[in-house]
Amino acid sequence: MKPNDSYVLITDSAADLSPHMLEAMGVRSIPLNMFMKDNPAQPCELCGAAFFDALRHGQVACTSAANLARFRETFSEVLESGKDILYLAFASPLSCMYATARIAAEELQEEYPDRRIIVVDTLCACLGEGLLVHHCAEQRERGMSLDELAAYAEATRLKIMHWFTVDDLLFLKRGGRVGAMSAYAGSLLGIKPVLHVSDEGKLVPVQKVRGRKNALMELAKRYDAECTDKTATVFIAHGDAMEAAETLKGTLLQYGAKHIVIGEIGPVIGAHAGPGTIALFYFGTSREECQTH
User: Region 34-47: what's the mean pLDDT?
Assistant: First the structure.
């Protein structure tokens, strides 16, 4: 089948897809807003190691969703070209990107009655959202229609497993994921939480392990037990922690993974997870079943 070019696939910067990956997929991206707490009027342009170094040195990064004007501008440009839109949005419990996109779509539908805009809440984050976008882009290349791909995205989103471990509990404390005493005690004892994204798109703690090595091994064990297709692409994301990402990759290869892509955690996710975060994404059967593994 030929690629379906009657519509444009759009996502956002919370998917942590690099410009190169977006270009290769033929996908557009809407950026969320980033700024440092001590300079809220100036957008933050730091990324990669420089961004995480700023966090290590005490700077606090803040995020907010793109505004309605940004969505209208991006969507209008596509609609003007005569194409429809499928927007795959950052998980709605973690951001109002989905809600804002819905408002923009409803307004623009009246202005462009011959065009269509479908907005899907991915219930995914980081390269988990990116992995869903990756598979959707592949299906579009195989000729899926707009409606078929929207249905595919909704049917597939909860099969994208999300597993995270963070290096410093204080960043999760700041975001309200753990209490102050737990964060302090955990940091002293070298406790590394293992977290998952639920069916509702929420980041939830699942267990605590002692030490970085054990946390990485727990992610790999989850993959080995839960992955339903070890020939499918696996994404690993890291917050300025390439060595740990490579260690996890090596273990996954021993467990039978065939195609592993390592990417960076961007500022949107990194602001809340902190430097040293490692995240793993792959196909499974059920997020809720995986939490009790």
Answer: 81
Tokens of 89: 């949005």
Please check whether residue 202 is in contact with residue 237, taking contact to mean a CB–CB distance below 8 angstroms.
no
Report d(CA 87, CA 104) in Å as an integer. 11
What confidence category does residue 191 fall into, taking pLDDT thresholds of 50, 70 and 90? Answer: confident
Phi-psi region of 77 (alpha: psi -120 to 50; beta: other; left: phi over 0): alpha
Judging by DSSP bridges, how do beta strands 233-238 and 84-89 pair with one another?
unpaired
Three-state SS for 198-251 is CCCCCEEEEEEEECHHHHHHHHHHHHHHHCCCCCCEEEEEECCCHHHHHHHHHH
- H-helix or E-strand spanning residue 117: strand 117-121
**Interval 72-96: pLDDT, tens:** 999 999 999 999 999 999 999 999 9
**Which DSSP string do the residues of 163-184 spell out, in sequence order?**
EEE-S-HHHHHHTTSS-HHHHH
